[in-house]
Amino acid sequence: MSDRDVLARHVAAAIERHRGVAAYLGLVAEAVPPHERGPWRRMAEAVAAGDVAAGVEAARRATACWIPLIASAPGDHRLEARILQAATRPPRGGGPLAALGLALAAVTLSSVLTLLFTSVVLPVFEALFDDFGMRLPWLTRITLAVGPTARRGWPLAVAAMVLGGVGWWFLVRQAPRRACAAADFTRALARLIAGGVAYDDAIVLAARVADAPPVDPADPARPLTYAAVAALDAPPAAAAVLLDAVADCHDDRARAGSSIGEWFIGPLAVATIGVLVGLAVIALFLPLVQVVSNLS
């Protein structure tokens, strides 16, 4: 039986069992943020109409929304709570937009400080050194040479900084992706096993939640971990508890990876600016120290 056949069979059974929650699904669809409403609306409409084909198509596009229905028995009083939990799952970290905002803020600050330094500060020191007509240290000559170059090529410098910020955002977004997939897979697997779904079918459906290719417990590969395979050896009730614990571990890893990446942008920008400013101060005041030494 193909993965789509497994999904269709369970979606058809879920629609037949839970026609009564269609109104609640509609309320949930209206309560979630606008960019998340589509999957819940399609599910609510398919359940209300008893349309299995529409339900299968909706589940194919957003399998995670259907896990509470698939994993719940008829009349299960916990179904509404499970639906609400699935719809209001807290984000891991600040999210990609937060990381992008921090990266662009760091780029903007660096660009403004660099332009002010090269346009305002360096010309004053350059005129001062010309008046003295003294031989400048190599570090000072390099620093003064940066000024005209930066003033002429500041659009390229800003573009390079923006690309660096976007690149950092991309790394922050991609870093926890494997842990997120493992967490989503293992959490869905725990819900399905607790709901009495056969292990083979549960693995197929959980793989769809994580948007992963089919996995084989005999040869575990991400997002199916060895810890999850070991949990599956226990009775269903115990296996569900163990799988939830494994999913919590993956969630912690994903949040930690995302939070560290977002947090590191600020200190990295401050450290970079601090090093550059420190070198510039040393370079510009070295000749003044020489002048004071000669005068004394």
Overall outline: elongated
Note the run of SSEs as H and E: HHHHHHHHHHHH
The stretches of 5 or more residues where confidence is low (pLDDT under 50) are none
Q: What is the residue-mean pLDDT, rounded to a whole number?
A: 81
- Spatial gap, N to C terminus: 93 Å
Structural class: mainly alpha
In total, how many domains does the architecture comprise? 2
Write the layout of secondary structure elements.
Elements (H helix, E strand, L loop, with lengths): L2 H15 L4 H10 L5 H13 L2 H10 L1 H8 L8 H9 L8 H37 L5 H37 L2 H18 L4 H11 L16 H6 L4 H60 L1
Helix pairs in contact: 1-4, 2-3, 3-4, 4-5, 5-6, 7-8, 7-12, 8-12, 9-10, 9-12
In short:
The protein is mostly helical.
Describe the 3D structure:
- Helix content is 79%, strand content 0%.
- The chain has 296 residues and is mostly helical.
- It has 2 domains: 1-89, no CATH class; 93-296, no CATH class.
- The model has no long low-confidence stretch (mean pLDDT 81).
Supply the key terms.
296 residues; mainly alpha; 2 domains; 12 helices; 79% helix; elongated
